Structure formats: structure tokens, C-alpha cells
Amino acid sequence: MSLTRRHVLAGLAGTAGLLVARPVRAEDKVTVLAELDRLQTTVGDGVELTVQVTREGEGRGVPDPVMPNFQELGLTLAGPPASYRNSSSSFSFGTGQQTQMVTKTSQTYTYTLIPTKPGRFTLPIHVMNGTSKVAAPRTPVLEVTGEAAAAAEPVAGSAAGPTEAAGEIFLWTRLDKPKAYVGEQLLYTLEVYERLAFPNFQLRTLPGFQDFWTEELPEGDPRVETVAGVPYRARPGLRRALFPQKAGTLTISPAELTVGMRRRVAGRPTQVEVLPLPSEGRPPNFSVNNVGNYAISAMVDRPRMKQGEAFTLTVKIVGTGNIRVIDPGPWPELDGLRRYDPKIETLPAVGMKVGGERRYEFLIIPEKAGDLVIPPHSFAFFDPATSRYQVVQTKPIALAVAADANAPAPSKQADKDPALVAGDEHDGLLAPILTPETLPRTASATAWLSPGRFITGMILAPVVFFGTAVGRSLWRRYGPDEASRQAAVRAAKEKELVAQAERGVSSGEGFYNSLAQLLQGAAARRAGPEGEGLPRRPLLELLARRGVEAADIEKLGRLLDRSDAARFGAAASETADQRSATLDEGLALLRRSSLTRKEAS
User: Fold this and answer.
1) Which residues have C-beta within 8 Å of that of residue 257, sequence separation ≥ 6?
2) CA–CA distance from 387 to each of 176, 244, 271, 295 (Å)?
3) Could you tell me which of 569, 571, 559 has the C-alpha nearest to residue 595?
4) Are 185 and 321 in contact, with CB atoms under 8 Å apart?
5) Distances 504 to 291, 356, 412, 413, 510 between C-alpha atoms, Å
6) CB within 8 A of 288, min separation 6: which ones?
7) What integer pLDDT is reported at residue 154 of this predicted model?
């Protein structure tokens, strides 16, 4: 009971004198009101829908409104709804001996809706008060005029700027080349052209790079540009380095802009023709990740050492291209040297193009004395500028190894098997083969199996057998069943996914992939066997039939869509704080929602 309520009750008792106050809990009453700020609009012009839910009584919170499917109706929800809460308490008493206390709590939601087609849209809205459905007394109806926006036809990627003035604000996409090879680097730029200053615009939908590996690039600076005689301010939206992952005509889906929450501006999809790598002149076992322009070098920390004394060999591959995924190929065999697996470090360089350095550091131990040589290593890549394959090599490195009588003798197995010299993962696990003729013979002084040991063994054998059988029976009865084992495996996997997502909050690496796996797994389990393999929308509809609340389904769909957008290139536009908030939202959905309530029960 609040301080105000205590003061009011004390005042009533003081002034009434003989009046005895007995609190009586009022019956909860839930109401919902819905209204539009205007009843008529045109395609692309937003309206505001306000929904107010009120509970009178001392029940638990205010129920969320159940909204219609705006997307199926042809309405776009511009951002999450704004909401605020208001609470008040009132007291009343009459000539009887009772005092009635009433608490009223209201929650107001404001939705901005943008119609994408003309028509008459009825918006039924209700809430659930326990098992009772409470509908708004008046159902909002919106009349939309105009013509539906036709889907924009894809355009070929081009580095040229716009030639027509397209209103007060529009989006423009540049691609530095309309044709590329698989793995070749492309420069994608999205710009916002505006005649007036629009401070309240934001990218609502990011472009989709489903068939590309993406890297973020610096956005650049705003500039003034004249388009068909009209001055515009061109703002850089985002810039990406794209590496196509397959051949064919690939499409980059368009971005979409919202201006002030009531207006949408959509770009156009962009197409690029991707060619397969040529077969002519292709080196054997060539890796398709080696596309770009590279150089290679090798060096040791010192050319002179003693036998058995370790030194470091460093191989560097430097150039432009997708440096993170290049394949150096098989390393050459070494004579008289034992090589261990390398420490690999990537040092990307991001400017107008992506490139950098890939470094391999090997620990090597000379097993022989004398003048030894580290042979050259060859690296093959495809240069898109010349449309030809090229092979670059390191220079051989001469070593002077001084003899050391205390150094371990060279391994005979290593001398026979070069793979073991190169640091094979099974090195040391295989012993030399021994033939019966080479086995040592030792005569036993006394027989091991004495009469006493024989009798003891005969007595203990049935006891051990019986004990083993009983143990197996108890394990089958009281040990974990298959369902428990699967639940334990699933819990361990979920814990690892959460840990991966937490590690990716700061950098973004792997964050949305882990979060999407968590959410998708929970949705599939809640849907049951019928939900296996379903696309997202049918899966969400199935969850609704399984009793998952509409608000939880909407939140799940939004998080999965955000994860898809980020995994295909949009993650770089988010900060670590935004990813942290997204993770908290996803974990809250998994822990305290109807999506997992059935499993918890």
C-alpha cells in the first residue's frame, strides 16, 4: 500500500470517527480503445494508430493488445510502437461500513502504419482478460487511395551517378563494375540524395547480400552534386566490399529508408553478372578463394643455429583480395628439419579495397648438422585484372647448422616418412613394427600360475560376472534415459551458443549466427515434428496454433529477420551496445515467454 493511500485511510478514520474501514477488492475490469489520427490517406503516406489498454482493479499488469497482421493487409509497420504507462488509485465510501479501493493502470501504444496499396482496411483489435476476449468498442477503418507501388525492376550495377532528379529524397546504388569473377572484389556504395535537409531519416531495411562475402569499408564524406540541373546533397549511406560466392546473375536486394516515421523511400535491386573461374591454365588443386593480386615472402629469425636448437620460419602473403580465406596450399617437404603446425595471423588492411597480410609462423628444429635448405614455397592465385592464373614463390633459405653431440638423434621414422617431418598430427603415436624374431626372450624362473592363484581365480570369476550383470541392470533402470541424454546434449549446445553470442557482442563476429540458431531451435522444438523444415512464415503460423502468444511470435520474427539481415552484411552498421541489447531481448524471450512455456511445464 503506497504512502498516499495510507494517509487517505488515516484521514478518513480521523474524520469519520465511528466509521470502520474494511478494504474490499474491486473486480478487475479490462477495456481497450483504438483510434486512427485520420481515416483517409494515400499509398505511402503514414497514419498513426493509438491503442489504449486499461485495467481497473488489483490484477497483474496490463495485457498486451492483439493486433491484426499488418503485412498481410498491405500495411507496413514503421519501427517498433511507442508506448507509455499511467497508473492511478482512487477511493470511495458511502453510508455503509465499507471502503472500496480502486487501482487503474493504463498502457498506451502508438503504431505508425504506411499503406503499400489502396483499399479499405479494417483493423480489429482486442485483448485477453484471462480467458475472456475483450474487443475495442469501435473498430478502426482506414480508407487508402492511390496506386500500389510496383516492384522495382533490377538494374545492372554501375559506377555512374543518377541522371534524373527523383523528388526531394531518393536512394542511389553504385557498383564499381557490372561483371566480375567468382571471388573477385566489388565495391558497393549506397548513397542518399536529398534536396532539403532531412535530419530524421534512417535505413529501415538494409540491402541483402545473400550470395556475397562482405567486408565493411569507410563510408566517405557528404558532397553536393547536380542531377539534371537540380542541386542535391549526396550522403554516403554505407559502403561494402563484396566477394561473390557463386557464378550466375546475382541480385542485391534494395535498401529502404524511413523519413520522420511517416514516409518510406525504397531503392532498386542491383544485379551483377558473375563469371566462373576459367579452366584454361588452372593449376592443379587450385583453391577458388585465392582470387586477387598477391606477393609472397619467407624469412627466418636467424640463419645459423646448433643441431636441435629451434628457430622460427615466417611466411607472408600480402596483397588485395579476401585475405581472410586464402589457401596457401601444401607446404614443401623439409630435409633434416622437423616442422610444427604454424601460428596463423591475419592483418587486414581496409581502404577503398580490402587486402592485407596473412602470416604463418613455423617452429622448426634442425635434426641434422651441416648446410641445410628451406626450399621455396609456391602460391597460386587468379588475377581478375589480367584474367590469368599466376604463381609466386618464396626464395630458398640457406641454413648453417652446427653439430651438437648432446642433441637428440634424428628419428628414423621421420627420415622414412616425410609427412612426419612436416609435423603430421599423428607424429609420435606410431611405434616401429616389431617382428617375432626381434622380440627379446627371457626365461621365467618360476611358473606364475600356481595352484593357489588358480583356485582364487575360479572363486572370484562368478562373483565378478554377477556383480557386472547387477550393475548393468541398475544402470538400465535408474540411469538416464534417452530423453534425458538428449536434453542434456541440447542444454550443453545452447550454453555454448549463448557463450559464442556473448563473445561476439564486441566484434559482431558470429554473434547473429549463434543467436539465430538459439531462436530457431527453440521455435522448432515448440512447433514439434510438424514444424521441421518449414519456412519462417508457416513456422510462425504453426506456433500461433500451438498457443504461442502473438506478441512473442512478433518478437521472434523480428529477431530472426534482424539476424538474417546482419549475417548477410548489415552487422557492421550496429554497435556493441545494440548487439548487447539484442542478446538481452533474445534471452528474455527464451526464458520468460510462451515460446518455451510448454517445455518448462
Assistant:
1) 169, 171, 192, 201, 202, 203, 204, 264, 265, 266, 267
2) 17, 16, 21, 17
3) 559
4) yes
5) 28, 23, 47, 44, 6
6) 182, 183, 277
7) 66
What is the predicted pLDDT for the residue at 131? 84
| Residue 62, phi then psi, degrees to nearest 5 | -110, 130
Q: Are residues 74 and 189 in the same domain?
A: no
Whole-number pLDDT of residue 595: 78
150, 77 Cβ separation under 8 angstroms: no
Q: Per the structure block, which three cell numbers stand in for 469?
A: 550383470
* The residue type at 565: A
Q: What is the mean pLDDT of each run of 10 residues along the chain (601 residues)?
A: 42 41 57 91 84 81 85 73 67 54 81 85 90 90 80 69 85 90 93 78 79 87 87 87 92 82 78 93 91 96 93 96 92 93 89 89 93 96 95 96 78 43 39 46 55 71 72 64 67 84 83 84 81 68 84 85 61 72 88 67 39
- 567 by DSSP, 3-state: which? helix
HSE at residue 295, side-chain half, CA atoms within 13 A, is 2
Pairing of strands 141-145, 119-122: antiparallel
In this structure, what CATH number is given to the domain that contains residue 351? 2.60.40
Indicate whether 134 and 225 sit together in one domain: no
Could you give the CA distance from residue 567 to residue 211 in angstroms, rounded to a whole number?
11
**In this structure, is residue 281 part of a structural domain?**
no
Q: Is residue 558 part of a domain?
A: yes
Provide the residue range defining the domain that includes 297: 292-421
**Long-range CB contacts (< 8 A, 24+ apart) of 550-559?**
550/64, 550/66, 550/67, 551/64, 552/589, 552/593, 552/594, 552/595, 555/585, 555/589, 555/593, 556/519, 556/523, 556/589, 556/595, 559/515, 559/519, 559/585, 559/586, 559/589
Same domain, 232 and 252: yes
Q: Is 46 part of any domain?
A: yes
Burial of 524 (0-12, 13-18, 19+ CB in 10 A): middle
Supply φ then ψ for residue 469, to 5 degrees. -65, -45
Q: What is the pLDDT of residue 387?
A: 94
Among 421, 438, 466, residue at a domain's last position = 421
Asked which of 373, 393, 421 is the last residue of a domain, the reply is: 421
